[in-house]
Specification:
- It is built from five helices and five strands; from the N terminus they run E-E-E-H-E-H-E-H-H-H.
- By secondary structure, the protein is α/β, with parallel strands linked by helices.
- The chain has a five-stranded mixed β-sheet.
- Helix 3 (about 105-115) crosses helix 5 (about 140-170).
- It is globular and about 45 Å long.
- The two termini are about 25 Å apart.
Amino acid sequence: MPAVRILGIDPGLRHTGWGVIEADGSRLAFVACGAVHSETGQSLAERLRALHDGLAAVIAAHLPHEAAVEETFVNRDPQSALKLGHARGIALVVPALAGLDVSEYSANLVKKTVVGAGHAEKAQVAMMVKVLLPRSEALGADAADALAVAICHAQHRGARAMARKLADRIIS
């Protein structure tokens, strides 16, 4: 089975982190990472367009086979939660429009998969990403978190595929 290229996305309205890895069995390899930024002075529509265009460019440049997006936690401020939800919608739809299968993972599952503890600190996640992907160049927390989402997907994608096949068998 050939290596699978995975795009991990950590949605945010100001900074949406992205990370691309290749998974070949249990071997993981760093490809690229970064963040797409939107300007706070722009309208919400313009900011969402910037995220859309940035993620579309990442997909065009790195040609991932699958994508994984971190689910957002509930924010105390409803206005902030709504804005983050918009950014998350962009993070889900851009890879879907490119024809990629898109999976979602909770922040706790990402942290538990990468660090071993569901309530790990951002610094612990970044450190373990560097251990698991020694050649990674994650300069910011957003890119490191996105790489962690991609690593989580690489670890769980086999189980998801088996569950889908089983569900298809039961339905038919």
